[in-house]
Specification:
heterodimer, A: alpha+beta, Aldehyde Oxidoreductase, domain 4, 2 domains, 4-stranded mixed β-sheet, B: alpha+beta, 7-stranded mixed β-sheet, 5-stranded mixed β-sheet, 18 strands
């Protein structure tokens, strides 16, 4: 009886957005007389930070700092339609709608600034700090606050824009299955290192090294929070979680967090995250949806590492100590 | 976390002002100081609490329902049964033309899983609602139930759901979604080795911090505001509109920050019945799942069975792959026909294989309906595919990482569902994994690229 070490690898891809498309999202952007910009949506922030990302996308597109953008969302009276926050679609779909709306608003903003500065709108650029400058003559400038005031009270213009993103729905061909499930895919490769106690069947995940390719890390800190959390969830799926431990038997299901097993802080592996960015052709600033895929590769990587450690295949999830011990017993020479 | 900017640097603009910047989240201070408002923070004078009477049987005919004792219970304001629901038989994906309507808001004549909602009790307090729910008498005739997908698909198995007429979802392609590419049998015949393996998972709970729920307030003008933690505002509003036969302009849905979704809050379960309760009583209604309901009543990730048969050459090329996937939908469709179909579009994984055959089935059994969850239609498939890849590599005596390089898809490769690969990056992820994990592979693999061959 011994503690045995093993490692395993898995590589995966994952589609961004509702499968087969047909899932629209709209956005509206307008300025207030304060020079701030409102983004109005009906998308839902699940705690992943969607509002922050939409603010950064709007700010980048208009050319203002992110703290000048306020996101108002998840209200069906005020927000235009969004299919919902699921299928790794929030950033990709809503982000594209926000870009389109923000571009339209930016154009009006530049037109008003052009009138104030008596130049052509095409000769203007934003400095990202809240000012509009004449290209090549930055001393000639106007603040976006002043432009907003001018638009509202002097020029009678609405600095606003409408955005819409829709990937046309694909219908699978009946006989061949020819279809377009998604327009872009995120990627991952995970290497997990485990210790398995062949006396108790207990698995300790020592390290997981996750390489994720996500198109574009729009906010690296938020990418990190989602990828680390996903990696933990993958380990939890591999080794702990189920509402029906003896499926298809319906009994013994957990009804609270004492009975439903999940890893605690002490059970979490040393987690390494490395991010690659191959911008997607149709993503907002190249972003893909990493929200779901980041919890997938750890499961097979851990399963393969368990085999590498003790030489038994557990092809049924979760990989519990009971299953490992039964498999070890079955393979033991009589 | 590290960003490896050396990969794909020629495809990116890295000098943007706001994008790519690790700005602090504007909502974080509210979250960590308890200031962020969630739907359940809404409290209205005279608010009622809704509790469900649930089926204790996996499959049963309802002979009769007697709510008289419950109605007399102190604090009870209204007791709802199937006949109170305007359009009681529904299915949420009807909005994207995926029918038939196959589920009841409140059970009508039959229950098909243990935990199914039968009667809704609205009372002044949660306790009164719970106590009154225990006084509802339902007379059941227990029917044979089926829990195993293989059993459910056998002739003569108990029929789970009459609205389908058979224990699987009928796609326009037949009993399963199909993908056919190349000649898989010829591929197996010409392969050096053939390996067929079967993989299985159990249902998994989303385990959000905040359980599913909503608070509904009548606006006094025939409109109802529903404060909810749904993941999809209009999707839920539109389905509520159908179930309640109420024009959409009478409904106002308000969300906010949700305490975790993971796919568990895209079913439309709590909102329609709570709005109905508010309409029939004229009072605000709160319907919030207990943790037990969240774990055993709300949809879990489906159990899946995946059978993979591969033909592989000794040089490492996979020449044929046949995948048969089974998704255990439980008693009702919810999002499962979509999930099973998504699996068909995902297999055979990120590998270029010339001969592919895929069948994915959505199977009905007498268990808690499953539905969407993070990685829907893919997570369990990836477990099966990537364990299979490990087995294949060992079968032909090859390093598992190198084996994946040989088969990895690249730009321009035709996928089994007949879309050319675009934007591939699997090879680069594996190259970086090789370095980061100190798992060396041959130099020729480190020199590969996802860019189109010869480009």
């Amino acid at each position: 009886m011994a503690i045995r070490r093993g490692r395993g690898v898995a590589a995966i891809n994952y589609p961004t957005g509702m499968n087969l498309g047909g899932d629209p999202t709209q956005a509206l952007v307008h300025s207030t007389p304060t020079g701030n910009f409102m983004v109005t949506l009906s998308s839902v922030d699940l705690g992943q930070g969607m509002k922050q990302i939409m603010a950064q996308i709007c700010a980048e597109t208009i050319g203002v700092p992110t703290d000048r953008v306020v996101v108002d969302t998840a209200d069906t009276d005020t927000g235009p339609h969004c299919m919902g926050t699921f299928a790794s679609r929030g950033t990709h779909r809503a982000g594209n709608a926000v870009i389109q709306a923000a571009r339209e608003a930016r154009q009006v903003m530049l037109e008003v600034a052009a009138e104030e500065l008596e130049v052509n709108a095409s000769d203007l650029e934003t400095d990202g700090q809240g000012n509009i400058l004449v290209k090549g003559a930055p001393q000639k400038s106007i603040s976006i606050f002043d432009v907003a005031l001018s638009a509202h009270f002097k020029r009678g213009r609405s600095i606003s824009g409408r955005g819409m993103f829709l990937i046309p729905r694909s219908y699978p061909e009946k006989e061949t299955g020819a279809m377009k499930p998604s327009t872009c895919y995120a990627h991952a490769c995970t290497v997990a290192e485990v210790e398995v106690d062949d006396e108790t069947g207990e698995v300790t995940v020592l390290t997981v090294k996750n390489i994720f390719e996500i198109g574009r890390a729009l906010n690296p800190k938020m990418v990190e929070q989602q990828l680390v959390g996903g990696s933990w969830m993958g380990i939890s799926h591999a080794l702990y979680e189920t509402t029906e431990p003896y499926y298809p038997n319906r009994d013994h299901g957990g009804t609270d967090f004492n009975q439903y097993l999940m890893p605690g802080p002490g059970d979490l592996a040393e987690t390494e995250i490395i991010v690659l960015e191959r911008p997607s052709a149709d993503g907002p600033y190249g972003a893909k949806g990493p929200g779901e895929m980041c919890a997938n590769p750890q499961i097979p990587a851990v399963a393969n590492a368990v085999f590498d450690a003790v030489g038994v295949r557990i092809d049924t999830l979760p990989i519990t100590p009971e299953r490992i011990l039964r498999a070890l017993k079955a393979q033991a020479p009589n | 976390m590290e960003l490896r900017k050396n990969y794909f640097a020629d495809m990116r603009k890295d000098d943007l002002h706001e994008i790519g910047q690790p700005r602090p989240r504007s909502d974080s201070p509210g979250h960590v100081t308890g200031k962020t408002a969630f739907f359940a923070d809404r409290n209205f004078p005279g608010m009622l609490h809704l509790k469900m009477v649930r089926s204790p049987h996996h499959h049963a005919r309802i002979r009769s329902i007697d709510t008289s004792e419950a109605e007399k219970h102190p604090g009870v304001v209204k007791v709802l049964t199937a006949r109170d629901v305007p359009h009681n038989v529904y299915t949420i994906l009807i909005l994207i033309q995926i029918g038939p309507e196959d589920e009841t808001v409140l059970a009508d004549g039959k229950v098909r899983w243990k935990g199914e909602a039968v009667v809704a009790v609205l009372a002044e307090t949660e306790r009164a609602a719970q106590e009154a729910a225990a006084k509802v008498k339902v007379d059941y005739e227990v029917l044979p139930a089926v829990f195993d997908m293989e059993e459910a698909l056998k002739p003569g198995a108990p029929l789970v759901n009459e609205y389908h007429g058979q224990n699987y979802y009928l796609y326009d392609s037949g009993e399963c979604r199909k993908v056919r590419f190349g000649d898989v049998e010829a591929g197996f015949a010409g392969a050096d080795c053939v390996l067929e393996q079967s993989y299985q998972s159990s249902p998994i709970e989303h385990a959000p911090t905040e359980t599913t729920g909503c608070v509904v307030a009548p606006e006094g003008n025939d409109r109802f505001t529903c404060y909810t933690n749904t993941q999809a505002m209009f999707f839920t509003l539109d389905n509520a509109s159908i179930i309640l036969q109420m024009p959409g302009n009478k409904l106002h849905f308000v969300g906010g920050t949700v305490g975790g979704g993971f796919g568990g809050k895209v079913d439309v379960i709590v909102e329609p019945i709570a709005i109905l309760g508010a309409k029939l009583t004229g009072r605000p209604v709160s319907f919030i799942y207990s943790r037990e309901e969240e774990m055993q009543i709300s949809s879990p990730r489906a159990a899946e069975k995946v059978v993979i048969k591969d033909g592989v050459m000794k040089d490492g090329r996979i020449v044929a792959r046949k995948v048969t996937g089974y998704t255990d939908a439980g008693a009702y469709s919810r999002h499962s026909p979509y999930g099973a179909q998504k699996g068909a579009g995902h297999y055979p994984g990120p590998y270029t294989i010339p001969n592919v055959w895929i069948d994915t089935y959505c199977v009905y059994t007498n268990r808690t309906p499953s539905s969407a969850m993070r990685g829907f239609g893919v997570t369990i498939g990836d477990f099966a595919l990537e364990v299979q890849m490990d087995k294949l590599a060992r079968l032909i005596g090859m390093d598992p990482l190198e084996f994946r390089f040989i088969n990895a898809y690249r730009d321009g490769d035709m996928k089994a569902h007949r879309q050319p690969t675009e934007g591939a990056a699997l090879i680069e992820c594996m190259q970086e994994a090789s370095r980061a994990a100190n798992w060396p592979v041959a130099e020729k693999y480190m020199a590969m690229s996802s860019y189109a061959k010869g480009a």
